[in-house]
Amino acid sequence: MLSQQDLIDIISKGENAYVEFKEEKIKPNDLAGEIVSFANLEGGTIIIGVSDDGLIKGITLEDFEEKIMNICRNNCIPNIIPFYQEINIDDSRVAVITIPKGVNKPYYTVDNKYYIRVGTTKRIASREELMRLFQASGSIHFDISTVEGTTKKDLNLDSIRDYFMKYNMFDLYEETEEAVNRILINADILREAGNTKECTVGGLLIFGKKVEDKLPQSGISFAHFRGTDITEELIDKKQIVGNLPEVVEQALVIIKNNIKTPSTIVGAVRNEKEIYPAIVLREALVNSVVHRNYSIIGSKIRVLMFDNRIEFHSPGKLPNTVTIEKMKIGVSYSRNPFLVKYMENLRYIDQLGRGIPMIIKTMQKQGAKEPELKEIGEEFILTIYRPD
What we know:
Blueprint: H1 4-12, E1 19-22, H2 28-39, E2 44-48, H3 64-74, E3 76-77, E4 83-89, E5 92-99, E6 108-109, E7 115-118, E8 121-124, H4 127-137, H5 157-166, H6 177-186, E9 190-193, E10 196-199, H7 201-207, H8 211-214, E11 220-225, E12 234-240, H9 244-258, E13 263-266, E14 269-272, H10 278-291, E15 301-305, E16 309-315, H11 324-328, H12 337-345, H13 355-365, E17 372-376, E18 379-385
Parallel strand pairs: 1-2, 11-15
Antiparallel strand pairs: 2-5, 3-6, 4-5, 7-8, 9-10, 11-12, 13-14, 15-16, 16-18, 17-18
Helix pairs in contact: 7-12, 9-10, 10-13
């Protein structure tokens, strides 16, 4: 609970991304919009009885808490349960409403408006931002949405044929055109879009030709720096493009080529020590390409190599119910179930949830500092440290 001095200190610093001031006369739907905007992101605090410039005005309504709870229940969908507190400052009552980070995103107001918090104000979420909120909730999956302007010609049918032949299902080339289309639609590789058939995001990422032309956010940006900071000399830089299997294999080769591998010579035999085990690098890359948020258009996966570590930056926050602590013990949630299914069938994924615990355990056996997992802004970052 906040003390009087805590509240005075907060008010003195003014509004920010996590604090909003409102006067008592605010309309229910306007307040609901503020509440929803906080719940859709990281949560925040609404202080009622304070003007925009920080002047204490106070509240007068006796049953103000009941009014707030009714707004959270009746004007916010799904309903939101805040923490309510009243504090007296200079004989004025001030209401403090703490909105938790929502676990049932996206939230919207009773008039069907989805708000998010941007800086010191709320605004209606854009189509892309709304897509991310729905993805976080697990109610829709971006990897089976269509890529506008694509056709079956953007797919590598040889790769698709090999995939199905591997499981002794059928030979795609022995099927009629109509049957092939039906198979690809049933497999979520294609989807009907009006009178046309377009590739899904997942279908293009797994089986596409020149994927980067249609999905410029795909692929990996690799950079190797001398030293331990991004401001130091750039040794190597690569843009890795292609479908996901191609990207993983290319990236693995590039990373290995950039690792200085110590070796010893015993007699006529040269023994090289594996600094970063291939199984760890492969898992980190697969985890990045499979679980990133592909609805974030302007951002690629970044792999940054330094003298003492390798960082894997994946666009997109963790989904609603997933935490870093849960990931460490193997609890997982698939943002892109299509990608997970196909990469698992292609033997790039062993078992959902095992990857992060395996990375941690393997690097600890190498004598390295425990790998670090963190969220910063719209990125999830996995850092693997070089053993001493």
